[in-house]
Design brief:
mainly alpha
Length: 95
């Protein structure tokens, strides 16, 4: 066979050991060794505003429960004009 790069012929069965070693080290570089891999943990640091927002209840849970009850009973008033306006506003954000 002729080596396309160097134009020298190579004997069948003879390999370039340094090229093989480089190829093997390149392959193993992409895979971390399981015995050497250490467990890492991710950490999320929240801002003070996010922490306070998560702690506070800025809604009236009794009002939410009342709305849920009205919806389940089919008595929650729906205003079709308000719903249509909100759909138009949403659609304008898409364009």
């Amino acid at each position: 066979m002729t080596d396309a790069i160097s134009k020298f012929t190579r004997q069948a069965g003879v390999t370039n050991s340094s090229a093989d070693k480089a190829s093997q080290s390149k392959d193993s570089a992409g895979r971390p060794d399981q015995s050497k891999a250490s467990k890492s943990t991710d950490e999320v640091i929240l801002s003070k505003a996010a922490e306070s927002a998560m702690k506070s209840n800025d809604f009236d849970s009794s009002k939410v429960d009342e709305i849920k009850r009205q919806i389940s009973e089919g008595k929650y008033p729906l205003d079709s004009k308000v719903i249509a306006k909100n759909f138009v506003a949403l659609e304008s954000m898409i364009d």
